[in-house]
Design a protein that fits this description.
429 residues; alpha/beta; four-stranded mixed beta sheet; 16% strand; transaminase activity; pyridoxal phosphate
């Protein structure tokens, strides 16, 4: 069956809002290392990794073996009403890695579920439904997480179970304060935060939730230290701080294991998902013990933290720690940033290069007035695919190429990707 035939079947039974990449969508049927092969036999270097989910790469023996061992027991699922050894072992490891005092962990199936859980904990703990979120943010597709998403392209409904106010600072490239030095930029954003709390809320806000690097928003981030300055204000009001580490966790940013550590902050809770399972569905929350225990009613997660996913996740964390993939993310990220900035010197259409580690973005603009150029972005994404490289797309205006390859990326593969990207930019002329 061709991709075109499969696409017709997809359109007949799948929602129209379930977007697909490329003029002619592809099916990925095989993978090894950092490369994947589609249903028509074309092979690509994968620089988006299932939206940052295949963090280690494809066909990793240590992870596959861990899953096979669990399957060989005959137990794929028991639910959280029973003890699950791998779940406990994984929770112990994440609690220690988090740096959060007296941490406890709850497992779900995705980042959306993780953020919904964090909202439940914070609003219950503070007895308030008021939430602060960042402009240009994305936190999931469920009722509560859509409500705290500060990006109109992903806000499917104006209805909301929470009262949300949005704060400046996370998307610097198009901020009205973009030209200020870091310290002044942080100051005006802190002033904005305080003003938002004092003028648009009742004061008893439950929490602020923020992505250290915004994912769907185009891998944008503020200067290091902004969230430390924010937390000083939040602490004055007793407002909890939640770091959404769904995309930034597990060493991907290179310099730190968690994205929020770049700001020198220990949050009250962190949410996680994506790369933890290297393709297996798992997400969760790690939080202060007293905050986690705020929920007094019974609750559970039928599939969250199941034996298969937690076996895969435990093997994934062990692999990335044993191989020091955080250090590799820093090295290969620096190589890619240097190369992308070299391309930006040649092509004024590349308005901004940003990100950390192996979480990088290229924002495309019209050179004459610096306005977003979504058409050029779509063309470049298609051209890189035609040359054997898969990259993501995002940003508030759909004009950002997102690059997040597996953290096992090699120096030669990074050089190969840069060459393809440069060749693709030549098609804009």
């Amino acid at each position: 069956m061709t991709h075109a035939e499969l696409w017709e079947r997809h359109k007949a039974v799948m929602p129209a809002w379930l977007a697909l990449y490329y003029e002619e969508p592809i099916e990925i049927v095989q993978g090894s290392g950092r490369r994947v092969t589609d249903g028509e036999g074309n092979t690509y270097l994968d620089f988006f990794a299932g939206i940052l989910t295949n963090a280690i790469g494809y066909d990793i023996a240590e992870i596959s073996d861990a899953v096979r061992e669990q399957l060989s027991s005959g137990i794929a699922h028991t639910s959280t009403v029973y003890l699950i050894r791998k779940q406990i072992e994984l929770a112990e490891q994440i609690a220690e890695l988090s740096g959060i005092p007296n941490a406890k962990v709850f497992f779900a199936n995705s980042g959306t579920e993780a953020n919904e859980t964090a909202l439940l904990l914070a609003t219950q703990n503070r007895r308030s439904n008021q939430v602060l979120a960042m402009r240009n943010s994305y936190h999931g597709r469920a009722f509560g997480t859509v409500a705290i998403t500060g990006n109109r392209g992903w806000s499917a409904s104006s209805l909301s179970p929470v009262n949300v106010q949005y704060v400046q600072g996370a998307y610097r490239y198009r901020s009205p304060f973009r030209d200020l030095p870091d310290a002044e930029y942080i100051k005006v954003c802190v002033d904005d935060l305080r003003n938002v709390i004092e003028t648009t809320t009742a004061g008893d806000v439950a929490c602020m939730i923020a992505e250290p690097i915004q994912g769907v928003g185009g891998f944008s981030s503020p200067p290091d230290g902004l969230y430390a300055a924010f937390k000083e204000v939040l602490d004055e009001y007793g407002i909890l701080f939640i770091s959404d580490e769904v995309q930034t966790g597990w060493g991907r940013t290179g310099d730190h294991f968690w994205g929020i550590q770049a700001h020198g902050v220990v949050p009250d809770a962190m949410t996680f998902a994506k790369g933890l399972g290297n393709g297996f569905a798992i997400g969760g929350v790690v939080a202060r013990g007293d905050l986690m225990d705020s929920v007094k009613a019974n609750s559970l997660s039928t599939f969250g933290g199941n034996p298969i996913s937690t076996s895969a996740a435990k093997a994934t964390i062990d692999y990335l720690l044993d191989k020091d993939l955080q250090a590799n993310a820093a090295k290969r990220g620096a190589q890619l940033v240097d190369g992308l900035r070299g391309i930006s010197d040649e092509f004024p259409e590349l308005g901004d290069v940003r990100g950390k580690g192996l979480m990088l973005a290229a924002e495309l603009v019209k050179p004459d007035d610096n306005t977003p150029d979504a058409a050029a972005t779509a063309k470049l994404q298609q051209e890189t695919k035609n040359r054997g490289l898969l990259v993501g797309k995002g940003g508030l205006y759909g004009n950002v190429l997102r690059m997040a390859p597996p953290m096992t990326l090699t120096e030669d593969e990074a050089a190969e990707a840069l060459e393809i990207i440069r060749d693709s930019f030549n098609t804009l002329r």
